[in-house]
Design a protein that fits this description.
Elements (H helix, E strand, L loop, with lengths): L3 H59 L4 H8 L3 H9 L4
Helix pairs in contact: 2-3
Length: 90
């Protein structure tokens, strides 16, 4: 039989453990949410910049530059430039 004082110490220790474990999980969830939000912002920024780049590529081709000329300037293949120009995303 556990003495009453010992049982109280065990209960307090266990309660402290549960609180600490709960804080760890809350922190993990918070960090995960922050990471997800940051990744979403990064993805949105990349998409915005990509759309602007693609718009400028289309504009250069429409102004008379060849796929190969644009590709050479950007370090891309001419077929990638063709894909961008022919894509429906704007």
């Amino acid at each position: 039989m556990i003495a009453k004082a010992e049982a109280e110490r065990l209960k307090k220790a266990h309660a402290a453990f549960e609180r600490a474990r709960g804080r760890v999980w809350v922190d993990r969830v918070r960090v995960g949410l922050e990471h997800r939000r940051a990744m979403r912002r990064i993805d949105e920024e990349v998409a915005r910049v990509r759309l602007e780049r693609d718009r400028l590529i289309r504009k250069a081709v429409a102004a008379g530059s060849s796929y190969r000329e644009v590709a050479r300037e950007l370090g891309l293949s001419h077929s990638r430039i063709q894909q961008i120009v022919n894509s429906t995303s704007t």
